[in-house]
Known about the structure:
Blueprint: E1 4-14, E2 19-31, H1 44-55, H2 92-108, H3 132-137, H4 142-153, E3 156-163, E4 166-172, H5 176-179
Antiparallel strand pairs: 1-2, 3-4
Amino acid sequence: MPQVQDTISIVGYSLLDSYSASNNAFLVAKMRPFEDRKAASDSVRASITQLFSAAQQIRTAIIFPFNLPPVIGLSTSGGFEFQLENLEGADPASMASVVQGLLAAANQDPRLARVFSTYTANAPSLNLDIDREKAQSLGLNVSDVFTTLQATLGGFFINNFNLFGRTWQVNLQGEAEKQAG
């Protein structure tokens, strides 16, 4: 997008629900100066619309482009938060269907705009029951078990080093083809 001057991305964190996970990220775009964006198609609103349209084509991701609020700390539109609870033990696909129905109904209400949810039934998850006593009896530190899991299933920060006048970050991460099986 030529109207964007620069971007910064934070991988592993969701700005929308303040949740950290390896399949979350947010990106902030810095627009070019106003004098370089004179056309209506280069406005922030037009850029958000263009990005929203392009993002709809990516079926494996949920992308919500939005503008920052005019006053930091206030919402972009005076929004609200709603939490849907699964009290009957329905499976994730059933919950996704309920969420989609709720969103469809909410987005038909003229008083609401761009109602969305961060819930997805497609995000893989694991529930691990670590036998801490057995790990310790095998001479393993429980914290080392969790660090290994983090590095294998997501990523783990090791340290920084300087080279060529720059600071480089060292991260440990399992290979994708090893994680799938």
